[in-house]
Amino acid sequence: MSEPRVKTEFWVQMALRRGFAEGRPGVLIRRGDNDAGGVLLVLRGRAGLSVLSQMRTASGESAWLRATGEAAVSEQAADAYLARQLSRDPDLWVVEFEAPDLLPPFEAKIV
Prior knowledge:
Oligomer: single chain
Low-confidence stretches: none
Number of strands: 5
Number of helices: 2
Strand content: 25-35%
Largest sheet: 5 strands, mixed
Helix content: 25-40%
Strand order of the largest sheet: 1-5-2-3-4
Distance between the termini: 19 Å
CATH topology: hypothetical protein tt1805
């Protein structure tokens, strides 16, 4: 059974508050569809950036895919990935967090 879904706008607000509470400040880079837009997280770490893409597992659980790969990438590579995704889906949200270890400031299943 899949978990209940919340509106994207509410989820982003929660993630930003959680980030500030955890000492990993975040900023909204791009606002997407308030109700059902997907989310891309940009994690800014010591070694570079990582972009996580929101997804659902086969069983319907919320998870995150390391869309730019396991290793940190340059800002140019992250920006190019974001541009490609936004050209395909204009409803996407983009949120960036300070994340020295390239992990989000909230509990997340990363695949």
